[in-house]
Amino acid sequence: MKNHVDIVHKFGGTSLAGLDEFRRVISIVESAGPRPVAVVVSAPAGITDALHGLVRAAEAGEDWSAALDAVMARCHGLAHALLDRERLGAWNTAIEREREDINDVLKATALIGRAPAAVFALVAGHGELWSARLLAAALATRGIDADWFDARDALTVIDSELGPAVAWEQTRTRFAASWTPAPAVRVITGYIARDERGGPTTLGRNGSDFSASIFAALLEAGEVVIWTDVDGVMSGDPRRIPDVSIIRELSWHEAMELAYFGAKVLHPRTMAPLVARSIPVWIRNTAHPEGSGTRIGAVSSDGGVKGVTTIAGMALLNLEGAGLIGVPGTASRLFEALRNAGISVVLISQGSSEHSICCAVPEEDGLRAREAVRNAFAAEIHQVQVEGVELVPDCSILAVVGEGMRGMPGVAAKMFGALGRAGVNVRAIAQGASERNISAVIPSEEADRALRAVHASFYLSPQAVSIGLIGPGGVGAQLLDQVAGEIPRLASESRVDLRVRAIAGSRRMVLATRAVDLGTWREALQSGEPTDLDTFADHVQAEHLPHAVIIDCSGNAAVAARYTDWLARGIHVITPSKLAASGPLDVWRRLQETRREANVRYLGETTVGAGLPIIQTLRDLRQTGDEIIAIEGILSGTLAFLFNGYDGARPFSAIVSEARALGFTEPDPRDDLSGLDVARKLVILAREMGLELELDQVEVESLVPEALADGGIDEFLEGLAAGDDDMRERLEAARARDHVLRYVARLDGRSGKAVVGLEELPADHPFAYARLTDNVVQFVTRRYKDNPLVVQGPGAGPGVTAAGVFADLLRLTAYLGADV
Q1: Which long-range CB contacts under 8 A does 525-532 form with residues at least 24 apart?
Q2: Residue 232 has pLDDT above 70, yes or no
Q3: CA-based R_g, the chain, Å
């Protein structure tokens, strides 16, 4: 008879945990059809631990009867629900006999006071026996031709340095003698085996997967299906990355790499019998059998990066010194010392200078490893040829895995770029010649952030950005509404995950674990907690999210003063506020230095021209080598509106009141009429040009009467009418010369002179054609000297300013790696 099955199914303990789970497994096996199949099973979840507990109780001289009764009751409950009367009787007879056997073994253990490994294997192995016998009887009860097989009748294993290993020659001989002609379904016990002397042993915890691969090899199976509690192999740990995806295909090499680094994949020893015989294996979910799962085989059709994973609990051991350069055998002595100490080396890294060599070891072995290496290089340390042996604790190893990485340029750049943008320090790097794994040693406290950042950078999950907004007034409120409308599209099209996790007003703030409901944020803010910007920043910079940004729409000087601190701790800053960018020059320099050192972004395109690309245009001109000769223009949408609409038919003060009512001015119109806002914008542009201009160096003509500079807003608006006649006279004088009035800013790029004020311009001047709230900026450069470059468009209003801030946010996500 040829020993052969089409497929081997393996069901783990969680797949057989209770009655519903057993019925689901029965349904899956029934749907396999008439082809011959083998089914390898674990004990129901928790049974093996309970049986181990019985042995430990006996060793300690404690009463085990109640615990044994609980195990028996659980098994009897399953049998009563699954079996017909005839099979239930046979089941009860067998299990009661085995109960007495267990009780006798426990009594003997209690007398001796200790239990050898064989006792643990004998007692704990009953879980698989009961599971296999019960499933086979339940299938037979439903009319399926099924029986069960005790793996101990065939499987022989020996101990090795790598754990239990199959004695293949003995196993094949015993298998041929014990395997009788099989029915449609044969249920096989997982986990349990015999040693070379015939004593009971096991394949170790989670050994049922190994059992399945061994019997697949013995039965020349076409494929193996490992049924578990996940939908397949994931691209990352779903407990740490909320948006992981299922990997549809993996090669054996990819699966082994991921398994080594802790991903929930088959153990490498489990795969060995399958690799040798090219038997593919599937990982599928018992609870969702309709899912496609993950296929692991000789080759994988999918290219690129497959998964990102980490292994925690590492320490980095570093041997460094000039005496190592060019000395043969240094690495050999290092690793021999570690081998003699029984310490496993997980990762190795050495620079081409040979000045240092480092390796990652399990953290619990770190101190022993350092001592072993110190002893091995004691002479060199004494002679100061070796500076010493450094041990860095609290490390994790992050690995990027994919067969398709081989020969693909830019993978390492993308990985380390993502780590850099997330503010993660890399302590050591290793890549094998196969190029299917790039590993980095990082601080454990940064592991979650690193994992999410790298996972997102390869489009394995959306690019998550934690957002905090300060100042939910006119611009801030518009921004929140705009973002709320675009979040679904950005998530689906660009895989950008924008999470507004905090909103702060002047008095109250609301913090959300995942994201604030942007449909009800106004109500949530009213009942929020008192505003505390330290708590706010701590919340926005969540350890489990790779990127954090604070958007300041408040226009508050105290908030702007915090930008440098936020940048220093790795938080990006976006703002339409001009206070920081036009403040004292030394403060501005420090902000820029901090931004560069922390490798974060400070984005303020909307500080000049609302949503217009004025600053970006200036940067492009400079970065491409052009010389800025002069910048001139209308830089205030508010003042543009006032003088575009002022024709003398209505008083100037009435137009100011209208502009305020339309939301085109600051809450206090004096902030616009004073010219200080325009002066700040001119300072920002000057600094972007490289000029060291302070605000008090700008010549400013204020339109606020000196007598009205102080006092309340209402008082100012009432008193402004007293100046209407003077303003009308200026307008009429300009008209008499066929001129118009415009509030203009001028900056000389060579002398650095900056002037802001109300000017008469010819009626055919480009600035005379500005409409409504238009800003018009004219760049006179070496390239654009005869025909200046002009940027024109709406420069006031909460909506366009909010859109500009939103554009800055999207620029940030593009910098972080999103495809927007």
Answers
A1: 525/472, 528/503, 531/504, 531/505, 531/506, 531/507
A2: yes
A3: 37
- Cβ 383 vs Cβ 352: under 8 Å: no
Please, what is the angle between helix 85-112 and helix 126-141, to 10°?
Answer: 180
pLDDT reported for residue 656: 93
Tens of pLDDT, residue by residue over 661-699, are 887 887 889 989 999 999 999 999 999 999 999 999 999
pLDDT digits (tens, 9 = 90+) for 490-546: 988 888 889 999 999 999 999 998 899 999 999 999 999 999 999 999 999 987 788
Mean pLDDT, rounded, for 288-302: 84
Pairing state between β 547-552 and 572-574? parallel
**Low-confidence winner among 399-403, 536-540, 552-556 (lowest mean pLDDT):** 399-403
Residues 280 and 376: beta-carbon distance below 8 Å = no
Candidates 240, 730, 153, 210; CA nearest to 450 is: 240
Non-local CB neighbours of 413 within 8 Å, separated by 6+ positions: none
3-class SS string, 173-191: HHHHHHCCCCCCEEEEECC
Q: Is 681 a residue of the active site? A: yes
The alpha-helical segments, DSSP class H, found in 493-568 are 521-526, 533-540, 557-560, 563-568
Asked if residue 738 has pLDDT above 90, the reply is yes
In sequence order, the 6+-apart residues with CB closer than 8 A to the CB of 139 are 26, 29, 30, 146, 185, 187
CB 439 within 8 A of CB 450: no
Backbone dihedral angles phi then psi of residue 601, each to the nearest 5 degrees? -110, 140
Give the model's pLDDT for residue 820.
Answer: 65
User: How far from 665 is each of 68, 680, 759, CA to CA, in Å?
Assistant: 80, 16, 21
As given in the structure block, the two tokens for residue 581 are 């960018």
Contact assessment for residue 804 and residue 794, using Cβ atoms and an 8 Å cutoff: no
CB 629 within 8 A of CB 752: no
Which helix (H) or strand (E) segment is 619 a member of?
helix 614-623
Cα angle, residue 45 at apex, residues 41 and 47 outer, rounded to 5° = 95
In this structure, is the dihedral angle defined by the CA atoms of residues 799, 801, 802 and 806, taken in order, positive or negative?
positive
Put simply, whether the predicted model's pTM sits higher than 0.90 gets the answer: no
Residue 109 CB contacts under 8 Å (≥ 6 apart), including other chains: 55, 58, 59, 115, 119
Question: Among the options 306, 414, 681, 753, which is catalytic?
Answer: 681
Which residues lie below 8 Å from residue 1, measured CB to CB, with a gap of 6+? Answer: 181
In tens, the pLDDT along 28-87 reads: 999 877 778 999 999 999 999 999 999 999 999 999 999 999 999 999 999 999 999 999
- What is the average per-residue pLDDT within 2-27? 91
Residue the block writes with tokens 């002179």: 753
The per-residue pLDDT for range 701-717, each reduced to its tens digit, is 999 998 898 889 989 98
**Tokens coding 76:** 């009897």
Exposed e or buried b per residue across 689-708, where buried means at least 16 C-beta atoms within 10 angstroms of its C-beta: bebebbbeebebebbbeeeb
pLDDT single digits (tens) 464-485:
899 999 999 989 999 999 999 9
Q: Measuring CA to CA, which residue among 270, 275, 293, 273 is closest to residue 283?
A: 293
For tokens 């998550």, the residue is: 464
Instruction: Indicate the average pLDDT of the chain.
Output: 90
Structure tokens at 285: 């979910």
Return the HEC string of 85-154.
HHHHHHHHHHHHHHHHHHHHHHHHHHHHCCCCHHHHHHHHCHHHHHHHHHHHHHHHHCCCCEEEECHHHC
